[in-house]
């Protein structure tokens, strides 16, 4: 399970060091793709395969399924770590997430989120103040 938040710097060549615990949990060749809310998702291969399988159970004729599939798959890539635990993030994904030098790498239970630090704090502060509402909505959606 991915827990915690780490602060790292993105190198000028686009390489990012991933925390050792996260690397161990991610395993070989994790998948990096677009995430929701302006971050990137870094997923273990098994989690990626489950996500893709879930998408494949949706009707191909459904426009939203096709769009989500494209958004997740077109820029996705398998990451490989160098001996220092760094991985090269593609320019397209860095642009999508607005990544600058200061980065937040955060565990989200089944995957890792990679955020630009300023964007992360803005998003987190805006949503944290509504935690009661979010929890109530979660109960409604998951217990009806």
UniProtKB/TrEMBL annotation:
Domain SpoVT-AbrB stretches: 5-47, 76-119
Annotated keywords: Cytoplasm, DNA-binding, Repeat, Transcription, Transcription regulation
UniProt subunit comment: Forms oligomers.
PROSITE patterns the record matches: SPOVT_ABRB
SUPFAM superfamilies to which the protein is assigned, alphabetical: AbrB/MazE/MraZ-like
Protein name per the record: Transcriptional regulator MraZ
Cited PANTHER family: TRANSCRIPTIONAL REGULATOR MRAZ (PTHR34701:SF1)
One Pfam family in the UniProt entry: MraZ
Biological process according to GO: negative regulation of DNA-templated transcription initiation
Intracellular or extracellular location(s): Cytoplasm, Nucleoid
GO molecular function, one term: transcription cis-regulatory region binding
Assigned protein family: Belongs to the MraZ family.
Major localisation: cytoplasm
A single GO cellular-component term on record: nucleoid
């Amino acid at each position: 399970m991915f827990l915690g938040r780490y602060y790292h710097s993105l190198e000028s060549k686009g390489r990012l060091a991933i925390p050792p615990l996260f690397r161990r949990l991610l395993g070989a060749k994790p998948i990096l793709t677009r995430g929701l809310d302006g971050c990137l998702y870094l997923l273990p291969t098994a989690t990626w395969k489950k996500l893709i399988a879930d998408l494949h159970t949706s009707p191909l004729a459904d426009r939203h399924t096709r769009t989500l599939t494209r958004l997740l798959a077109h820029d996705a890539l398998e990451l490989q770590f160098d001996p220092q635990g760094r991985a090269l993030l593609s320019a397209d994904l860095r642009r999508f997430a607005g990544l600058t030098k200061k980065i937040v790498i955060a565990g989200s239970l089944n995957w890792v989120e990679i955020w630009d630090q300023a964007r992360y704090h803005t998003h987190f502060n805006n949503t944290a103040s509504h935690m009661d509402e979010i929890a109530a909505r979660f109960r409604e959606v998951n217990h009806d």
